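Question:
When you can, review this sequence-structure pair and walk me through the tokens.
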Amino acid sequence: MFIEVKKLNDKAKLPCRTTADSAGADLCACINDDIALMPGERRLIPTGIAIAVPTGFGGFVFPRSGLSSKFGVSLANCVGVIDSDYRGEVKVPVINHSSEPYTIKAGERIAQLVIMPVDLCEYGFSDELDKTERGEGGFGSTGSM
């Protein structure tokens, strides 16, 4: 699948898969100067690109595993969603969960983009839902192991 990308900044980089079978394409920080992200601080990082996600698909922005496991930096919103009708700049909200400052460098890979099919559902109220074995059990109700 080919995804059209509009370059909004001369320093912007295309999303890039680092191996042939990578599901995610890395998104890079398009910033003029490095950003010191203090412990507990959140920042919205520009990528300098806009993308055209095809109808029937969604763009999902996930954290990079190394950034979170090594440095405690992840997405402030867990997973970002880019709708197929959005044409603005892709921005990445990051948060530093560690006790140390982290420096985001210009051009650094900060998140990964995965394009996946989505069902465009319609919703409606119902007086009753189908019965299931689980029922209303949630929040750990199925056990810990």
Notes: The first strand starts at residue 4 and ends at 7. The mean pLDDT is 95. The longest helix spans residues 65-71. The chain has one helix and eleven strands.
